[in-house]
């Protein structure tokens, strides 16, 4: 996106790379995550906007064969901050030495400042940081001095004498590091002299401009789901190209209770999405899902069916050259599509399942954003709260919450019970405070007594989690009275639900959705 000062975060595959971007943006400066192989390209095409460079952490050892490197010359003398692997790379590539530490340093550590540095300006002389490394810098490159030490690494922070290159062994982006945000602010504002101009207001304006430029006079198709991401992507695109956009809402029969009707009303009456096509494909999806038990297989079946429907829409209403998607940054990471190669966790079909027969060019105006940023953007765009406040919902819908085969019966139980969970949370004023709240049903059954009769019905599991961005999540300790009320309602109102359990694992180790 043109116009903003940018801090380039060069990604070496570290688990916290995306957090660095997030923190930089929280400080009001645009951050772009760049795979390390593409660092040179960014600097040659767009170096003027880049005010500084952050080298992320990463799982490799600098001295191992084929370890990722950075071409320091290509960074064109911009200020550099290396974090963890980034620090080791600075030492290793600029003539210092890195060795395996005698003791791996993981978790909280205390660092002591040794010399003045603009990086730690205004900070106390000793504070706690978060470490996660097994290599240490044992010799500094020429022209560098150490500015902080910890009990395990004597070079916990270093700087070059010309004040342009800095490195820290710890992770300032992680919330456990005290003063972490201040350290990043010192780097961005005092050292890089970046101007804070990143806000959702001008993000929207610039996104619209960019879509308009990319699209030209071409026609675009956007699959809208009722979720905040695809809706925001569609509204931005509508603002950019108006009637050249066609929106399609596919009901795969795996939606929440009353969802299709409510969403259609908002799309038609409030947002007036252009050329809206509604396709009721419930039967089609459910037929294809018959007998499919494996979670990844279910995702694939659903992805394939979506792709087929897109092809049909394309030949009937198109041809479209552009496909608009509300892909978010966490989708990109969790699909293992992250540019430096994070591991694949689940196939998110909204990233992976593209129609094979059509060569769409993708427009993904939210690819760099997190959910909370998108919600903010949605509010700025005047999208109603029924959509902005709606909990995230997976593309495969209730198929991710019905464990094993998706049958009509399990689907009904899951849908009705989820509705009760949501309704009770809303009544208790907690719906907006949690990330997701839903019911899960599998094939496990348990005995109940309803009236005077024994019945052998399904076990329903409730999952309620809080999260900042879906990457990690904690189960919510709901009041017992509320849990009791939900359980009572489910067993009373949902036919064939006999037991209710509550899921009490965090993510990690569990994921949010059971499948
Ligand atoms: P997990 O279950 O992986 O979910 O911890 C993290 C977040 O992503 C949502 N999710 C999906 N979204 N397609 C989607 O569009 C999917 O296949 C999918 N699987 C999970 C999930 O609801 C949670 O918010």
Automatic annotation (TrEMBL):
Family annotation (SUPFAM superfamilies): Adenine nucleotide alpha hydrolases-like, Class I glutamine amidotransferase-like
Cellular-component GO terms for this entry: cytosol
Catalytic activity reported: XMP + L-glutamine + ATP + H2O = GMP + L-glutamate + AMP + diphosphate + 2 H(+)
Major enzyme class: ligase
Annotated function: Catalyzes the synthesis of GMP from XMP.
Molecular function via GO: ATP binding; GMP synthase activity
Record has Magnesium as a keyword: no
Catalytic activity, EC: 6.3.5.2
Catalytic residues (positions): 84, 171, 173
InterPro entries, per database record: Class_I_gatase-like, GATASE, GMP_synth_C, GMP_synth_GATase, GMP_synthase, GMPS_ATP_PPase_dom, NAD/GMP_synthase, Rossmann-like_a/b/a_fold
Protein name, UniProt field: GMP synthase [glutamine-hydrolyzing]
Pathway field: Purine metabolism; GMP biosynthesis; GMP from XMP (L-Gln route): step 1/1
GMPS ATP-PPase domain span: 198-390
Keywords: ATP-binding, Glutamine amidotransferase, GMP biosynthesis, Ligase, Nucleotide-binding, Purine biosynthesis
Record: residues binding ATP: 225-231
